[in-house]
Amino acid sequence: MSALVILGSGFDIDLGLKNSCADYAKDYRCPIVGNETWSAFENKLREEVIRWYNNGRNEEKAKMLNLLWRDYVKNISWFFTDKSDDFFEKKNKKGRKIRKVQTSCAYWFLKQIKANCKSKIYTFNYTNPFEYVDLPQLKDFIHIHGKHYKDTFEKALMVMSQGPNIIFGIDECIPQDGINNPSIHPLVKKYHPQYKKTDIIADLLNAENVIFYGFSMGTIDYGYFEEFFNAICNGTTSCKKIYFVTYNKNGFKEFRKNLCANNQNVDEVLQQVSIIPIYTRKGFKNRDFRLMLRRL
After folding, report:
1. What was the pLDDT predicted at 185?
2. What's the predicted TM-score (pTM) here?
3. 185 neighbors 191 (Cβ within 8 angstroms)
4. Hey, how many other C-beta atoms are within 10 angstroms of the C-beta on 55?
5. Is the separation of the CB atoms in 258 and 295 below 8 Å?
């Protein structure tokens, strides 16, 4: 394997898809509790589940969280479908969209993925980016939490069938006695009927070059990679270089800040591996980005 690639939501945003948390927050389907819009729904849900567990595990509260989660799963499928329809409409109507897409770093990244590419690519996104570009998909991506397919049928039928394929929810952030609650149990991604365990941790520990594209490494993200970063500090991983692809320097600062917030010693990580920040704001012609592509 030349490199292990892990795609986050920033990859879709760089490609031009308007399906970020900020976009969802503006949408009428974003759930509202009290006066608060739950734009980063999974983060908020996680906080509320922890609060529920620590404050007596009220059964009515658990049922309320379950209902919110069910509404979210239903609404987010409609949201993704509308956004994909909007993307194609703009792209085909004026032609501007496709020019913007073809100058993005994400597009050139996809262009580099050939059939004989030895890199393994995991994605935490629900979209298949090749459905939005004029490039053939020569290599399958491994979707950690399921996949939303471009709407090719009658919208109501297609969206209704999408929900069960997409895994929304939280990690195991509370003890098992709380997870066993019938209202809370479905919220944990690991117990979703479509969830499939992958080799992502083993691959991370064995890869010399790791590419994180579009991650903030916040609480939800970090939970998946804690073992990897701990292994780096302990010298028990093969990793030599981490390419961290983000929009600008603020994104890289946020990454470092989030690692520290999760009690990870950044200086200790840097003693073991090189972390190379790559900024998509500089465009696909910048030297660092092109050097990274050679690792694929």
Report:
1. 97
2. 0.86
3. yes
4. 9
5. no
Q: State residue 200's pLDDT score.
A: 93
> DSSP letters along 70-100, please?
HHHHHHHHHHHHHHHHHHHHHHHHHSHHHHH
Q: How far apart are CA 85 and CA 81, in angstroms?
A: 6
Both ends of the chain: CA-CA distance in Å? 9
Between CA 259 and CA 264, with CA 262 as vertex, the angle to 5 degrees is: 60
Closest CA to 182 of 34, 38, 69: 69
Would you state the pLDDT for residue 141?
93
* Low-confidence spans in the chain with pLDDT less than 70: 1, 85, 88-99, 150-164
E-strand ranges in 120-175 read 120-123, 142-143
Question: Are 23 and 228 contacting, i.e. CB atoms less than 8 angstroms apart?
Answer: no
R_g over Cα of the chain: 20
DSSP run (H or E) holding 120: strand 120-123
Q: How many CA atoms lie within 13 A of 113 on its CB side?
A: 22
d(CA 72, CA 59): 20
Distance CA 184, CA 194 (A): 17
Cα–Cα distance between 27 and 184 in angstroms, integer? 26
Query: How many other β-carbons are positioned within 10 Å of the β-carbon of residue 121?
Result: 19
d(CA 82, CA 85): 5
- Partnered with residue 242 across adjacent β-strands are 210, 275
* Secondary structure (3-state) at 156: helix
Tokens, residue 159:
């969206």
Nearest Cα to Cα of residue 69 among 147, 193, 168? 168
Residue 79 confidence (pLDDT): 81
